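Reviewer has doubts. Consider these tokens.
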Amino acid sequence: MSEPRAAVQVAYEMLAAEDDWRVCKDISESACHAQPENFVRHAVALGLSKAADGLMDPKLVLSWLMTHLGAPSALIGLLVPIREAGALLPQLFTAARIRAMAQRKWVWAAAAFGQGAGAAIILFAAIMFEGAFAGGLILLGLTVLALARSVASVAYKDVLGKTISKGQRGTVTGAAGTWAAAVTIVFALVLIAFSEVRAVIVLGAMAMGAAAWVLAGAVFMGLAEDRGAQDGGANGARAALANLHYLRDDSQLARFILARGLLTSTALAPPYLVILASGEGGAALEGLGALVLASALAGLLSSYVWGRLADRSSRLVLVWTGVLGASAMALTLGFAGFGLSSTFWAMPLALFGLMVAHQGVRLGRSTYLVDMVGPDLRAVYTAIANTVIGVILLGSGVFGAIASLAGAGVTLALFACFATAGAFVAYGLKELGDGTPS
């Protein structure tokens, strides 16, 4: 065995950490033989993509950048809706065309290059322009990035299901999230330590993000992927409308989407927590660095663990994360009620717990969706779920704007109720885990 292949095998065995790692479930013999190298490629490529996400987080980094450039607040308010809805809503219309490709790794790789192009547009706008024009170009770049991400999301779960055995999928995505979080932690610490050149640091991070997506696409193209079924790829729009019947025909899919929709509260709640934590004289730099650091630490310490637990029972991961998310929001309200919001430890602690819960929701929902359906319908179910959630997120944005009129505390209380309801709905899902110890 050559030294590179030996190194890949060692890395795979260390990360998989299973007594029966040589046993493959629900993938072909050729895919099983190639699994060690594929596992490492997944961990590297997905980690690069996740690291780029952390370096260009619209909720934190891009909003600070647009403020720094003097963009109107109306444009800044469009960042998160464009990022989230743009990444989800188109998926129902692209799934059929993606299924028409025998090897979908090329789709993910092309989408990674597209995200790199979107990031380059954002970087160009930030360097060359200011004000509303810079803000408009940044939104254009974010739109390109979000649309490319929507394509990548549909393709990835299908490729993951074809190249990585059941029981290892949560592990590989968790490993990718862990090392990507470490990159974001370094970014946050540099922001805090070198505050006098924060704009340069942010621009450098964006350049690194664009390069990371391009490199991720190149790594992903090297996957050993079997050719798959190509039927069902005729007309995208017609197929999208026809596929909606699965919501009626498959009660588990409908229940899963309901649970996932309720658990989006863990993604929507952090801004309101930050509002409670911020005083009138809060410094923008400290706020940016601390929030990025809290998010990265949550990913670093929880992603791999959630991935291992998801391989055992992704259903219970969704239950636990709903309870944890609701508890973190309740803790936030308790800190605010007792006047502890201005302390240096209280709100960061609550934020950390909330973002740990959100990491679990992301891994649990991804693993459950891949495991609940066979390869023939995996891309279709992914597109249906993500499109419905995109609509929910748009609706939640309107709801959040209305609810915020009553105060951040009331909004967080409502989101805590949603997270609790999400845990209850997830508890009624069919158990798909293999039950083996992690």
